[in-house]
Amino acid sequence: MSFNIEELSYPLKKAIDAMGFESLTPIQEKAIPVGLAGRDLIGQAQTGTGKTTAFAIPFLERIDDDDKVQVLVLTPTRELCIQVEKEIYKLSRYLPLHSLAIYGGQDIKRQISSLKNRPQIIVATPGRLKDHLRRRTIRLNDIKVVILDEADEMLNMGFVEDIEDILKECPEERQTMMFSATMRPEIKRIAETYMKDPEMVKVSQETLTVPAIDQEAFIVYEDKKLLLLTRLLDMMQPDLSMVFGRTKRRVDELTRALQQLGFRAEGLHGDLSQYQRDQVMRKFREKRIDILVATDVAARGLDVQGVTHVFNFDLPQDADSYVHRIGRTGRAGNDGLAMSFVTPREKDHLAYIERTIKHKIARSPLPTEQRTQQVRQENLRIQVVDALENGEFDQLSWVAEDLIATYGAQDALMAALSLITTGDQRDFEAKRINLTAEKPVYSKNSVPHKGGRGHKGSRNKNFHNRKNRSYNKGKHGDHGKGKSDKWKKSPRRKNAQ
Ligand SMILES: Nc1ncnc2c1ncn2[C@@H]1O[C@H](COP(=O)(O)OP(=O)(O)OP(=O)(O)O)[C@@H](O)[C@H]1O
Ligand SMILES: [Mg+2]
């Protein structure tokens, strides 16, 4: 029998109930008993499968309300730090425990004054935590549990020294747990050097990516990417989407371009002030913007309800990053669609990503102007039907009567429709915007094409088996053909597991 909710203490059961979780996810079933036993562990499970709760429940069951810092959770980014602390806060709602997020960019004095609440649990980014250690405003002498979320990233070059420094300040006698959706063998070996006889808790799946995420690739020239994105956004009208760009400059330029084209988009990257970063994340979570354009700073861990589409405007450098980026959708049992833009010179890099994730990414044909226009018009029809069914427009009746009497119903309606379509104009503008070109991505793992550059390998032919797919098979626009509706409206959301 696997571990289940009934075995938890009452305050946690109640909190989990309030969060709407009906049962535990597989990684939670497997990792919680090991964590409760006080063992060190490395937990690996796909994106969006509830690793946060998997690592939080054991320490919430085990620590006491002694007002010392007993648990330290480390995360690679500020946004993730804030999010993880929120999840812990929700889980500990009925427990006499305090948690606090400590991250860079926030006023350190404010953090110092929040520390007066005597939190038992600190969630931190490494840099800012080290500041506090230097100032002796945080001490780690009483730490019982250390958790590295996104452990493989934390043990990568950029962070590993900070992590070492931090772990040195923690007592030897402690429980250490590491979690991630990706754990390359060499990183796993490094991880083990910081742990005592860790148990490997893995929810094995055939692929690194989540099956609920549909993955597609478009082979597209660099200077046609913006037009492609514009058309896809217009056709599919995602609820919320994330667009990943390679560099900060790329993110800035792309955000500006999308705004100019009339999309509600904002950018997120490490050069923004913390205030700006917080604002952007808040707007995105509250659906006041539809599109978050970001660098890899947003690739890991972020959990935003309603993200139905992820676009890799630029391919990521490594396959792990691909896994985490696309994992921002298809979370907790929901569907998602991930689309990657690949320049012809990056085909080998895509092949390397496919090999690593053990999943073949379907090649999709580029939407033509004609097809795009047709879908836009069908979407327009849906908009009008929605308005007919739900709208209140009685106050416009005299205008309609007047226009119909003067110009006839058909002309009057067509003129009115033309006012609300932006599509053709958008295409026109998208073609005129020049983004600074990014270099093609290449990694030492991407093998060159057989026959050199420009060779059209027979391998690629198999990928075009979707050529005749329709971009519009939704409930209103299409007249009965096909089942998939992903090309237009956002994928349907199932209930969370
Ligand atoms: N038992 C559960 N039932 C339903 N939903 C859950 C359950 N546990 C967690 N969730 C929800 O699932 C979502 C994803 O959880 P979480 O962010 O912990 O995933 P993750 O495995 O850490 O993903 P990533 O690898 O991207 O960091 C969250 O919204 C969380 O609240
Ligand atoms: Mg996570």
Automatic annotation (TrEMBL):
Residue span(s) of domain Helicase ATP-binding: 32-201
Protein name from the UniProt record: DEAD/DEAH box helicase
EC numbers: 3.6.4.-
GO molecular function: helicase activity; hydrolase activity
Membership in a protein family: Belongs to the DEAD box helicase family.
Residue ranges constituting the DEAD-box RNA helicase Q domain according to the UniProt record: 1-29
Region of interest called Disordered, as start-end residue ranges on this chain: 439-497
SUPFAM superfamilies: P-loop containing nucleoside triphosphate hydrolases
Transmembrane helix found in the keyword field: no
Domain named Helicase C-terminal: residues: 228-374
CDD domains, sorted: DEADc (cd00268), SF2_C_DEAD (cd18787)
Species classification: Bacteria, Bacillati, Bacillota, Clostridia, Eubacteriales
Biased composition (Basic and acidic residues): 475-488
Native source organism of the sequence: Peptococcus simiae
InterPro entries in UniProt: DEAD/DEAH_box_helicase_dom, DEAD/DEAH_RhlB, DEAD_box_RNA_helicase, Helicase_ATP-bd, Helicase_C-like, P-loop_NTPase, RNA-helicase_DEAD-box_CS, RNA_helicase_DEAD_Q_motif
Composition bias, Basic residues: 450-474
UniProt motif (Q motif) ranges: 1-29
Keyword NADP attributed: no
Keywords: ATP-binding, Helicase, Hydrolase, Nucleotide-binding
Any one Pfam family match given in the protein's UniProt record, by short name: DEAD
